[in-house]
Amino acid sequence: MKHRTRTALALAGCVAVLAACSTEDPNASGGGGGGGGEGDVETGNGVTDDTITVGMLTDLSGPFAAGAAIQVTQTQAYYDQVNEDGGICGRDVEVQVQDHGYDPQRAVTLYRSMAPEVVALQQVLGGPTSAAVLPLAEADGLYLGGHGWAGVALQYENAQIPGTTYAIESANAIDYLVDELGLSEGAKVGVVYFVGDYGSDSLAGAQYAAGERGLEVVPQEITPRDTDLSAQASALQQAGVSAVILGAAPGQLASLAGVLAAQGLDVPIIGNTPTFGPSLLETPAGPALEQNFYTVTSIAPYSLDEPGVQAARELYEAAAPDGELGWEVPLATAQAELLSAALEGACEAGDLTPEGVVAAMRETSDLDTEGLYATPLDYTEVTEPPTRTVYVSRASADAEGGLEVLGTFEGPSAQSYTVG
Amino acid sequence: MSDLLRRLPVALAVLVALGLPVVLDGFWLQTGLFAMAAVVGAIGLTLLVGIAGQLSLGHAFFAALGAYAYAWSVGEVGDRAAGAGLPPILGLVLAGVVAAVAGALFSPISGRLRGIYLGLATIGLVFLARHLMVNLEALTGGFNGRAVEPFSVPGFSFSNDDPDYLAIAGVEFGGLHRLWYLFLVVVLLAAWLGRNVKDSRTGRALANVRDSEAAAAAMGIHVARAKATAFVISSAYAGVAGALMALAYGRIAPDLFGLQLSIDFLVMIVLGGLGSIAGAAAGAAFVVMLPLVLTQYSSELPFLAAPGSGGLDGATLARLLYGAAIIAVLLFLRGGLAGAAGRLRHRRSPPPPDTSGLPPAPPPSAAPASAAVPEPSHPGVPTRSKETTS
């Protein structure tokens, strides 16, 4: 008897589940017919009649907390101003910020909770974290920006790289060494780089360009945990390098510049964008940096005298009067401008859905950022970097943000480097 | 009747777990997937550390092996990273088998070391794993990792496609919902197998070896083989857990399988109560979900600062709570969550239930934390002091 009841119950359960089951998509024919906003603009996730929500997955409690906080402040300030000026597509832009603490597991879960609520991701900071989120965002057709400059991101249609790649930065660095700093053929160039998508990309560009220009690369692999580069500096001195390219973080730059100066090796050091931080100039390595440090960046340094950068500066100084200054300020502005342009484009095309934003971003062919980038940007080719021109600057305690701009540069090997 | 009563909570829990995907959103589903993957690994580790008394910090190594074994065997032939194009179900089995074989290969070492020395030796495995993962680029995709093909059986994929649209009770069942059931099945299987191992001849032999190798040998237990068995079983669990993690992420990279993961596993089983299957599950759920949930809902908790504003934010609070929970369990909850639950049950029903049921608390001879550092030759030494210092 008992058994019969159980069987009956189990059967009833199965039938109920099966009856509730369906493989017919009720929305399939409508093409996502929801929304119905004013002005015939189709809307989807993250867009209501009066707000557009964009997300930031950033690192506010991990290793990049300081720079990330600047970017959050500046992004918020940017959209506050946009909203004051009437918003985008007649709607206010709201920024949703979550902190993944540089932990991929947290990034993935936070992405899952954020994805249905936003129309685009303004930023996913960090190499391992953005690598974990990028494929998910691609599957969801969600715009993703602010993920750094690693060349691997160029395979994703939904990712908007904020400038050129590390490889092209380093190729430009080699060209600059030859054309402007007078390195002769056969000279050796040390490349000290983080293992991983950032440093390895930088090395690839340097190696390509060195091959083109007849230089020899002396690679030195390090990890983010190595903060004392004495061994690497000695190795570079023994190899007799005439210049060093650094694809690492500010801590490594301080150590390398300090040790090289102490060893009496007076050679130029050229760093990728994330290598420099203005507070380095107050460390004992400051004088050595002022003498020898250059950086190649696709984003304009803080002190550049161009209207776009000036506006970014004013906005930031009003929002955070005591804030740290750095290249993060123009970068956050530029990233917000890139996304705003995509949102505007999607609005004009009448398709303010996540897919519409990605499509609009890929239509962007001639975006002028008034100096935030050295050239107009072109995002129409997925696998092509939007620009190959960089700003070259050198460390200077007198300049705001610690960098004095020398000019823009695009070398022959940076032009011919093929990504991927 | 008492049998039915005893099983009722488990049955209810399974029923609730079956129904949850209908009401949960993406965040909770993803959190649940990570938690279930960790549960499988924690059960394996509690068999090794709690039952067999072998301290291992190498669980991340075996999890990594399982994850990459799955990714490789299921990966498409001729893709960026090498793949064998096998059916996913085979890949899942292979993940366990590969890790188990690695555990067996390591057992000559693990059989000769004990306590903290074994712990240190297994740490070596984690660094070996990292080196291999970064450098065997053809297999692992190097530092950037590789994509993981979704799980599928013929005609049904545990992803967003095939069938493209599936709804139960009006809720669209995407990849996360479908994976939930796969993970649930694996977790139940792992718990059931774990309980059987624990209560079987093998489990008793392992516990005997933990308590006194000499006594175990005198009773005719092959000590070296028993230790190897424990390592192999635990590694297989870790391998499957790694494969589940790979499925939950959809992409794996060396950074996921660092020493921190090993330590997390250890914390899970200590919190839950060494040697307890249910405890390991509860500990795993706590350790995985706490930071995720706190960061997600930090904006809704009034005493937490907004991320980045410099105050106490969700991520920091999660770390503090995590540490506080470990200290509290070590100080006040002997036997972890499982021990506490057992004592609670005892208090409610004064006449102790039949002995065939759940062991209400870990066996009295096994003071939980000291089990990790078995010193069988000093039976008379009070274990309490050792516990607080270890």
From TrEMBL, chain A:
<feature type="signal peptide">
    <location>
        <begin position="1"/>
        <end position="19"/>
    </location>
</feature>
<feature type="compositionally biased region" description="Gly residues">
    <location>
        <begin position="29"/>
        <end position="38"/>
    </location>
</feature>
<feature type="domain" description="Leucine-binding protein">
    <location>
        <begin position="51"/>
        <end position="397"/>
    </location>
</feature>
<dbReference type="InterPro" id="IPR028082">
    <property type="entry name" value="Peripla_BP_I"/>
</dbReference>
<keyword id="KW-0732">Signal</keyword>
<dbReference type="InterPro" id="IPR028081">
    <property type="entry name" value="Leu-bd"/>
</dbReference>
<protein>
    <submittedName>
        <fullName>ABC-type branched-chain amino acid transport system, substrate-binding protein</fullName>
    </submittedName>
</protein>
<comment type="similarity">
    <text>Belongs to the leucine-binding protein family.</text>
</comment>
<dbReference type="Pfam" id="PF13458">
    <property type="entry name" value="Peripla_BP_6"/>
</dbReference>
<feature type="region of interest" description="Disordered">
    <location>
        <begin position="26"/>
        <end position="47"/>
    </location>
</feature>
TrEMBL record, chain B:
<keyword id="KW-1133">Transmembrane helix</keyword>
<feature type="transmembrane region" description="Helical">
    <location>
        <begin position="29"/>
        <end position="48"/>
    </location>
</feature>
<feature type="compositionally biased region" description="Pro residues">
    <location>
        <begin position="350"/>
        <end position="366"/>
    </location>
</feature>
<feature type="transmembrane region" description="Helical">
    <location>
        <begin position="55"/>
        <end position="73"/>
    </location>
</feature>
<dbReference type="GO" id="GO:0005886">
    <property type="term" value="C:plasma membrane"/>
</dbReference>
<keyword id="KW-0812">Transmembrane</keyword>
<feature type="transmembrane region" description="Helical">
    <location>
        <begin position="228"/>
        <end position="250"/>
    </location>
</feature>
<feature type="region of interest" description="Disordered">
    <location>
        <begin position="343"/>
        <end position="390"/>
    </location>
</feature>
<dbReference type="InterPro" id="IPR043428">
    <property type="entry name" value="LivM-like"/>
</dbReference>
<keyword id="KW-1003">Cell membrane</keyword>
<feature type="transmembrane region" description="Helical">
    <location>
        <begin position="115"/>
        <end position="133"/>
    </location>
</feature>
<protein>
    <submittedName>
        <fullName>Amino acid/amide ABC transporter membrane protein 2, HAAT family</fullName>
    </submittedName>
</protein>
<dbReference type="InterPro" id="IPR001851">
    <property type="entry name" value="ABC_transp_permease"/>
</dbReference>
<feature type="transmembrane region" description="Helical">
    <location>
        <begin position="319"/>
        <end position="341"/>
    </location>
</feature>
<dbReference type="GO" id="GO:0015658">
    <property type="term" value="F:branched-chain amino acid transmembrane transporter activity"/>
</dbReference>
<keyword id="KW-0472">Membrane</keyword>
<feature type="transmembrane region" description="Helical">
    <location>
        <begin position="85"/>
        <end position="106"/>
    </location>
</feature>
<feature type="transmembrane region" description="Helical">
    <location>
        <begin position="179"/>
        <end position="197"/>
    </location>
</feature>
<dbReference type="Pfam" id="PF02653">
    <property type="entry name" value="BPD_transp_2"/>
</dbReference>
